[in-house]
Amino acid sequence: MAVGTQISVEEYLKTLYRPDREYLDGAIEERNLGEWDHSWIQRNLVGFFYSHFRETGITAVPEWRFQIKPTRFRVPDVVVIRGKSNEQILTKPPLLCVEILSPEDTVSKTNQRIREYLDFGVPVVWLIDPMQRTVSIYRGDGMQMISEGSLPVDGTSLEIPISEIFD
């Protein structure tokens, strides 16, 4: 099926895409991923949360479908939640969504994605730039950029050293 072809939500949900794709009001949209920097950071984040799961109950999973509206499904690079979910497709706001920039990502599409997460009720979105080695933290009241130290995981006692994300 060609990207951009209009299909129903039901058709989207029963179709297997490799890699997974997003569904935006009837259109299938490809995601930018698959390069080393992107995969490395994704692995580091999931591994960090996995190593702290027993003590915190906080977990992270890569590329989990997330229904933000009846006809809009996003697939964040990493989703962070409390505990284990009983949902196959996430329908409520997680603690955190993480997007990792790829060279092909545009500012307008990235900003739209972040705004949709925040509007849905995700309290925090991290935008990781592998080239600049920075993390932009978006909340409803604004954005801050971090390039050293550690990142707090809002609503938890966890902090992730920047070095554990990039190194």
Task: Characterise the protein shown here.
The chain is an alpha+beta fold. Helix content is 28%, strand content 31%. A hairpin with a 2-residue loop joins strand 4 and strand 5. The longest helix is centred in the first third of the chain and has 21 residues, at 36-56. The radius of gyration is 16 Å and the shape is globular. The chain starts with 8 loop residues before the first helix and ends with a helix. The model has no long low-confidence stretch (mean pLDDT 92).
Write the layout of secondary structure elements.
Elements: H1 9-14, E1 22-24, E2 27-29, H2 36-56, E3 58-62, E4 66-69, E5 72-74, E6 78-82, E7 96-100, H3 107-120, E8 124-129, E9 134-139, E10 142-146, E11 150-152, E12 159-161, H4 162-166
Parallel strand pairs: 7-8
Antiparallel strand pairs: 1-2, 1-5, 3-6, 4-5, 6-7, 8-9, 9-10, 11-12
Observed structural traits:
167 residues; alpha+beta; globular
User: Regarding quaternary structure, how should these chains be classified?
Assistant: single chain
Q: How much helical structure, as a percent, in the residues?
A: 25-40%
Number of strands: 12
As residue ranges, the low-confidence spans are: none
- Average pLDDT level: 92
Largest sheet: 6 strands, mixed
Number of helices: 4
**Mass-distribution shape:** globular
Rounded to an integer in angstroms, the radius of gyration calculated over CA atoms is: 16 Å
Instruction: Name the strands of the widest sheet in spatial order.
Output: 3-6-7-8-9-10
Q: State the end-to-end CA separation.
A: 38 Å
Query: Strand portion, in percent?
Result: 25-35%
Q: List the secondary-structure elements in sequence, H or E.
A: HEEHEEEEEHEEEEEH
Structural class: alpha+beta
